[in-house]
Every structure is written in C-alpha cells, then in structure tokens.
Amino acid sequence: RMSARPRAASQDSQEEPDDEVVPYSDDETDDELQSEDDLDRSEDQLPEPEIRPTPAAGEFEDGSGVKVIRANDREYCNQPQFQKKVFLCIKKSRYSGNAIKTYKYNVLTFLPLNLYEQFKRAANLYFLCLLILQIIPQISTLPWYTTLVPLVLVLGITAIKDLVDDLARHRMDKEINNRRCDADILLLSSSNPNSLCYVETAELDGETNLKFKMGLKVTDERLQEEDQLARYNALILCEEPNNRLDKFMGTMIWDSQSYALDLDNMLLRGCKIRNTDVCHGLVIFAGNDTKIMRNGGKTRFKRTRIDILMNYMVYTIFALLVLLCAGLAIGHTYWYESIGSKAWYLYDGLGYSSSYRGFLSFWGYIIILNTMVPISLYVSVEVIRLGQSKFINWDLQMYYADKDTAAKARTTTLNEQLGQIEYIFSDKTGTLTQNIMAFKKCTITGRTYGETNHHWNKYADKKFQFEDHFLVSCIRSKKDPQIHEFFKLLSLCHTVMVEHKGDELVYQAASPDEGALVTAACNFGYVFLSRTQDTITILEMDHEETYEMLALLDFNSDRKRMSIILRFPDGKIRLYCKGADTVIYQRLDANSKNIETTQEALDIFANETLRTLCLCYKDISQAEFDAWSQKHQAASVSMGNREEALDTVYEEIEENLLHFLVSVQNEILYEKKKKRRRLRLKKLRKRFTNSTNPPDSNQPVDDWEKEKRQEDFVDMACECSAVICCRVTPKQKANVVSLVKRYKKAVTLSIGDGANDVNMIKTADIGVGISGQEGMQAVMSSDYAFAQFRYLQRLLLVHGRWSYIRMCKFLRYFFYKNFAFTLVHFWFSFFNGFSSQTAYEDWFITLYNVCYSSLPVLLVGLLDQDVNDKLSLRFPKLYLPGQQGSLFNYKNFFISLFHGIFTSLMIFFIPYGAFLQTMGQDGEAPSDYQSFAVVAASSLIITVNLQISLNTSYWTFVNFFAVIGSIAIYFGVMFDIHSAGIHVILPTTFTFTGAASNALRQPYLWLTIILTVGICLLPVICIQFLYQTIWPSVGDKVRSLKNRKKKKPAFQRGGRSRRSAYAFSHSSGYADLIASGRSIRQRPSLNLVLRLMLKTRN
C-alpha cells in the first residue's frame, strides 16, 4: 500500500476515493524492497531541518530510515556507521555503487558453478551415480561408455548454451557500466533560467512529453561555476532508498540554513535530459539503490509447466524403475536358490549367497534399465527450444520495418509456455495506445462545434483535424466573447513549454492532453508564444498580449484540475480553471448558464468514447486576491503537511466558476478490432470503502483477513469482463500478477514498454517487452520482445500454440520409444534367470537414442504443425488445449507407458515365438542369442521410426529423409560393427561378429520383422482413424474444413476479359450461414480466457 497521507477535505472528496489509499494487496514480490511501513516511518522520522554536521552513529543502527550525504566528501560515506556486515568481519557500504552486475559466471567460477547447477537436475545426478556404478565390476552389466558418452554430450551442450547466454549478460553489463553517471541526482543548477531542466520520463511513467525540474533558488544563484561547485559542502538528509517514484523527501543544510527538498528537485535514473545544455547535480542514490532499479524486482528463474510436469514424470519413472529392479532382484534370488545353485555348469567359484546375488542383480538391472530415465531427453528439449526461438526471431510477419526491429526471443526455455497463457497483464500507455491526443469537438455556451479547415492560419498544425466553418467565422469576426474566452483559456491555462525552431513552434507538454489543447488553441489563432517565471505571452488573432502570472495551482490526481490566476494588461485579475467534469460541476456558480445542454453534450461525447474536459473562469477583485495570496504564501513554505495546506488554500479560491466544455480523443493505434475477437478481456472496477472513514479502516486487521480480501479481490476480478487497474505503482502491478498466480494457479503473461513495467514483466510466467518510445528497460528484462503490441496475437496463437503442440508430441513419443526399447530387457529376464543379461548388443544400446531414433522426433518438435498460421489465427479455439493442458499430462504419460509396454511385448515375443523350433533355408537353426538380438533391434528401429511418421502432421522432404535416413544409418552402422574387420581391431569391444549378415540373409527372419512391425502399428492406425472420424479434435475439424473442396458454380457468365472491381474485392456472402440457422443461434463460448490489466494515466 502507499502511505495514507491525510488530504484536505474537498467538496468532492466525500464521493471520490482517496487515491493515496491504494488496495492493500501487497504480496511481497520483491524481497529486497523496503516495506512500505518502513517507508512511512522513515518519512515520519525525517528530522526537522537543523544544523547537524555529523549525525550520531546510533541513528543508523536503530532503523531511523535517514540517509546522510555530504557534498564533495567521498570519505564521509566510508565511515563505520555507513557500513554493514556481509560475512564474519567483512563489511561493505550500506549503499550501492553505480555499477550493476547481472552475469552469473566469471572465468574461475564457470566450470564449478555450471556443473553444480546442472547436477541439481535430478536426471543428470542420476546418470552420474549410474556411471559410478558401472565402474564397479561386480554389478556392471554394461560398458561404462554407454553412459559416459550421452552424459558428456548433454553436459557439454548445456554448458555451451549457458556460456553464450552469460557472455551476452557480460556485454550488456559492460555497456551499461561504461555509461556516464546514471543515478538519482539532486538538481543544483542548469544553463536554463531559474535552473530549469527539461526531462523526458518515458521510462518511468510512460509519458513521452517533456516535463521540467527546477533547482533550488539558493543553488541556482550560488552554484553556476566550477569553483563554486567545488566549494559546495552541504549536508543532505533524505529518505532511505525505496521504490516510490512519485515522492522524495529530504532536507539540505548549507551555511546554517535548512532547505526543503522534494521530487521536483530530483533527476531520477531513467530520465532523459532535453533542451538543456548543462546541468549540475549531486548524486543521492546510485546503482541498485535508485528508484527505478528498486522497482525492477528480482530476476526470477522461470520454468514452464511442462518442465515441472516432466520432472515429476521422471521421478515417477525412477520409482517404476526401482520397483521393477527390486522385483527382478527378488526373482533372481529365488531362481538361484531353486535352480542356479544346483546347476554345476553355472558354478563361478565366488561363493555368494542367493540374497547377495539378488542384491547385486538389483544394481545390475538399475544399469540395464537406466534408459527408462532418458538422459537425452533434456538435451533434445533444449535443441527444440533453441530452434523454436530462432523461428520467432526469423518471423517476417513480426518484423516492424519502420524501426527496423524484428521480434526477439530473449530466452530459449519458455516457448511452449506461450501456448498455455490464461491471463494477460498489459501496460496501456505506449503499449495498447500511442498516447496521442487530438482535439475533436467542443461545446461553447451550449452549442457544439466540429469540422473546419485552418488554411488561413500560418501557425496551424498540418496534422490538425477539426472541421467547422461556422466556428472559424465566429472567431475571425470576434463577435462572440465567450468563444474568445474559451480559446484564450486554452492558450493560457497550462504548463506547456515552447521552443522556436525558425517559424515553427514546438510545444513540450507534461501530458498529451495539455499538448492537444494548446495546439488546438494555436490552430484557431490563439497562439502560445513564450513564458517566463512570471509572465505568459500569446498571440490573439492579430495582436500580441502579455499576461502576468500571479499564481499557478497545479494539477494532481486528487484535485483532478488545474488553475492559473492572471493579471490582464488592463489590471483585471481572472482565474482560469480546467479539469474533470465531476469536480468542475461542484464548483460552478449557481447562476451559470447552459448547464443542462452542456451535460447533454458531455453524455454524447462520452458515448463516442471521447475524453472530456470542462473549462471555467471567474474574475477576482484585488482585495480578494491579496487576502488569498497571503494564505497561499504561508502554505507554500509550510514544513509540515505542505500539500494539505496548499489544497485547502486552492479550495478557497476555486469557487463560483463559470464554465464551458471541450473534448479530446485518445487514438488507439496499436489495438485492432479484430484483435478483440481473439483475446477476450475482462474489466474490473475497484471497490473502495467510504472515503470519509479513517484511512486505516481500509486495512486488514490481521494476516488471515488480508489473505481473505486478496482472494475475494481475485475472485471478483475473474467474474468481470476486463480488469482495469488505475494509477498503480510498478510494484502494485507486480502484486496483481502475483495474486492471480497464487490464487488461480494460472499461467500469466505481462507486456509493457517502460521501466515502470519491469517488475510486472519479471513477476509473470512470461514477460514481453515492447521496444517503443520508453527506452529499452522493459526489453532488457523481458523474455520476448518486439516493436508492436499487435504482434502478441501471432506470438501466442501461432508460435506459442505450435511450440506447445510440438513439445507435447515430442515428449509423448520420446517416453513411448524409450519404454518400448527398455522393457524388452524386462521380458527377456524371465528367460535368462533374471541374470541381468541384456537383450541387445552393447553398441546398439549406446547409439539408440543418439543416432537411430533421435532425428525424426527432433524434426517433429521443430517443424510439425497441425494447421498453418492463417488457420491458427482464424480459429482461436485451437488455443484451448494448451490452456487446459490436455496434450501432455499424466493421462498422456500412462498412455505412452502402456503403448510402450505393448510394443515391447510384440518386439520380444513375436521374434521369440518365431525362433522356436525354426530351421533356416541352409539347414541351420538361426535361433541363437545374437540373431535374436538383431531381429528384435531391427523390428524396434523400424517400428519407432514408422510410429513417428504416423504422428507427423506436416511432412517435408527433411522429415522423409530423417525417417528413411535413421533406418538406413541403423543398418549401415550395424553391419559395420558386426563385421570381422572391426572385430580384429577391438575383439573385446565388438563381439557380434557376423551376426547381422548371418541373420538378415534369412527371408524367414525378414518376414518376422515385417510381421512384428505390422502388429505394432496396426492398432495405432485403427485408433487414429476412429478418433478422426468419431471423436475429432478441434484441429481435425479445422483441417477437414481446409481440405473440403469448393463446388464449381452451376452457371458461368460469358467469357469477358474485363470484370468489375467489385468481383475481385468483394468476399463471399453469408447465405450458407443464414440458411443453416447457425447465425440465429447463440454463439458457443470459446473459453479463450486471456485477461488484461491496463495502466491508465490521469
């Protein structure tokens, strides 16, 4: 929550909520941020201005929350009271330096830290233990290289990927740290009059218009030269580093005088200085202590749902493996007790008991059946994700030519999560909109105007679109004084700065609304020319006038209005005011005219989605102003509750006003209507308690009530059509995301374009940055980046959906092929006395996942698509399986398990039956172990490669080549390692000499292989046919719609070469839809729930 600072009671405060008391949903998403309660205490405990050259050390140990800085004295901050203990007796400064560090490794730590992180992954640690077991002769049933080769491959590829990612972080850190001082700075003086400094705060608040900061009068007068700056020795007492972008409080003590400091004196990190040649300042916060970095939040390690589920499945496989091995070990114990110990030809002279032999058999089977936990799974997943990321980077339909910016996948680990997004949280200004305001219509004394041209005005903006010839004639004739006052108010009541570039005027406004109104006045002949600290000069049609500015009552989110008090050249004093209709109407004089007609115009403008603004004025006598001015001066220098005092004084003068009306429109250029059909949005109006209650009454009394209110908040939001959160801080944005993640267990995506969106982007499961007008902070913290909001549709509905489907299909098949491969050993155990004998040749076990079955499934994971991109965008219902997680879950896992069990049964028992009492054509029996291993392995390779062919939806030449090539590689390698030549070189390693050539020259065994493959694939073909015809999926229906051929028309017109353009441009009508009756039925809900959080500006 933000601090509940009491405000002055105004007439509208009884009905409007206190915007300082924001919702308490402060789930701490950033552990390193100071608690808001501490911030409140630090503000309350900020010392009164007094001379304190050196604070006592105790003030820093008791949590007083005060930071002390002495100008031009670096050693002052190195005193012991400014340090904190890091480890044992090692201490460092309590405050950050200006350098940042985001990299993870250096030259010395890369290898140990990277290996440590990789072995935190359960599968890698498991295979390391397995490798150690294989070195033990008593239990080793497979050569050590069968595990070492895949393990080194996995660790090496992952390490290279991590190294490349970290080198990119090193380059980014070096680029940022090589910049000039980027910190929160106290502005002392500048080259502009009154030490004004113009800044662009797009990275902080999303606003691209210029704002101005101002140095103190005393520093402006005394700190312009370098020697003066060198002698500057003031003591600064201010708040501790915190994340509040909207507030700063401090005191400067210089030459026995105290001066109040606030946010208007600060240049925050992330601001860009404009139209200012030179400025001088004092660093207050640096590095990670700056306000924008405090709003950045922690960098979180993000994992996809599939990653988490995959780990649990690996644990499940490991549990099954232990159970199988334990069962086989028990079987070997009983077998050796009853049979093995009594067979003289099995005597080995070791003297082991049957129980001990069973114990050794357990570990032997752990080694043999280790492929149930696939080590190549993780490296294959990394390769697929890398390829999917490249496809995002190469997508020309997400390339923005105007800025030469392509989409960028900044991470390679989250692609499939893009296909499971349930809630979207979006920044508004600069993301959904371009924050461009245009003057559209106005109502003056009850009459509405619009549409005119401005060729008569040399200062007119060529882009200005407002057409009303009658209004122009009224202005030029000068007959209507109310119209004259209307546009004079627009040209005078503002805080806009003007820059002259030749004959062109360039306005720098604090908000796009201000810029639109001043530009409108300029186009109608009331041209704002210049301003000083005390005067404003405008051109009123054909003559120039200068007005003395007596007071400026600035806008804030509570007042919802701004006013200016001017002395006219004839001595008359007038107050001009503009603001929201809700606050202006409450301050109108009872004799104001045209209130009803103006209210009707307001309603019409609101229905046209125009943003409305009311203008009003009143004349003030000299005596009334003198009395008010004294009160204003006293409130301006008040050290306690200064803002409250000023608000009270403003209320006194802003009464009994006469009014007009004006409207501007916010042009949403990024969002398209068709997009709204794709992503369904939900809306929320925040609930506040009565603002007349004390602020603390809104707060929960304990953690349980806080938890309950947060849950109710989320439940209420999810019942609405769209969620709109107004005037929220960066941390509060992240808190809303955290609440949805916590209570809905949903996959979230945040998208924004400014530094104020970084925390939200880091908190969500997926963070998307837009490289817009607000700098690169959001992009640097994001997982994905592009230049336009509209590309989010393609990122999710095309790349996200494809990535999810591909990954699910890959994992289902990968588990299947490993079960089918490994469980053959299990069935073979029942025929070899559970003696840990392998069913295949050793090199086949080593190369199965590396060479023989990896490429086809990798290509499916990279290239497969059930429907093309156009259909993916056209039918958003295709996105539903990802949200529901229906393509990969424990149900699919067990289906793959049982499918693998079935295949392994066929792979073992069909050749086993075929080898019983069999005679080859040469009169010899081929029923030896090596021939059986060759036939079983050949059947397996052909089966699993044809199985992936049945699962492939999108065929290319590469897929065809991969399937045929994998089978060909298997036979080529098998004949090589079974040859006599390689046996002569390494006789103990290659022991299947001549087995392949001997077995595969028998037609009977080829028929056995064909029969085995056919029986394995036939049920799959039948089940797929039944599902596509009886229970088709959404993808099946869309594909059938695509493949449906259009009937030729029964009648064709004569063959004229020239045809109407209408025939080419007009699309087919809706006759079929109307005739079917579907157009009058209720449209079925697609349940595509992608939520949206919008940030609005006042």
UniProtKB/TrEMBL annotation:
Residue ranges of the TM segments = 122-139, 145-164, 312-336, 356-381, 810-831, 843-863, 893-917, 929-948, 960-985, 1005-1027
Topology versus the membrane, per the UniProt entry? Multi-pass membrane protein
Q: Record's CDD domains?
A: P-type_ATPase_APLT_Dnf-like
Where does this protein come from, organism-wise? Cyprinus carpio (Common carp)
P-type ATPase N-terminal domain location, by residue? 76-148
| UniProt biased composition (Acidic residues) | 13-47
Query: Which residues belong to any copy of the P-type ATPase C-terminal domain?
Result: 779-1033
- Localisation per UniProt entry: Apical cell membrane; Cell membrane; Cell projection; Endoplasmic reticulum
Task: Name the residue ranges with Polar residues bias.
Answer: 689-700
Q: Which family does it belong to?
A: Belongs to the cation transport ATPase (P-type) (TC 3.A.3) family. Type IV subfamily.
What quaternary structure, including any partners, is listed in this protein's UniProt entry? Component of a P4-ATPase flippase complex which consists of a catalytic alpha subunit ATP8B1 and an accessory beta subunit TMEM30A. The flippase ATP8B1:TMEM30A complex can form an intermediate phosphoenzyme in vitro. Also interacts with beta subunit TMEM30B.
| Binding site residues for Mg(2+) | D427, T429, D753, D757
CC annotations in GO? apical plasma membrane; cell projection; endoplasmic reticulum; trans-Golgi network
> What are its cofactors?
Mg(2+)
Question: For the region Disordered, what residue ranges are annotated?
Answer: 1-61, 686-705
Annotated GO molecular function terms are: ATP binding; ATP hydrolysis activity; flippase activity; magnesium ion binding; phospholipid transporter activity
Q: What is this protein called?
A: Phospholipid-transporting ATPase
Q: Write the lineage as a comma-separated list.
A: Eukaryota, Metazoa, Chordata, Craniata, Vertebrata
Q: Which reaction does it catalyse?
A: a 1,2-diacyl-sn-glycero-3-phospho-L-serine(out) + ATP + H2O = a 1,2-diacyl-sn-glycero-3-phospho-L-serine(in) + ADP + phosphate + H(+); ATP + H2O + phospholipidSide 1 = ADP + phosphate + phospholipidSide 2; a 1,2-diacyl-sn-glycero-3-phosphocholine(out) + ATP + H2O = a 1,2-diacyl-sn-glycero-3-phosphocholine(in) + ADP + phosphate + H(+)
* GO terms under biological process: Golgi organization; phospholipid translocation
Going by the entry's taxonomy, the superkingdom of the source organism is recorded as Eukaryota
Residues at the catalytic site: D427
Which Enzyme Commission number(s) are on file for it? 7.6.2.1
Looking up Gene3D superfamilies in the UniProt record yields: Calcium-transporting ATPase, cytoplasmic domain N, Calcium-transporting ATPase, cytoplasmic transduction domain A, HAD superfamily/HAD-like
Keyword match NADP: no
Per UniProt, the keywords (alphabetical) are:
ATP-binding, Cell membrane, Cell projection, Endoplasmic reticulum, Golgi apparatus, Magnesium, Membrane, Metal-binding, Nucleotide-binding, Translocase, Transmembrane, Transmembrane helix
Residues involved in ATP binding = D427, K428, T429, E514, F555, K578, R611, R727, K733, N756, D757
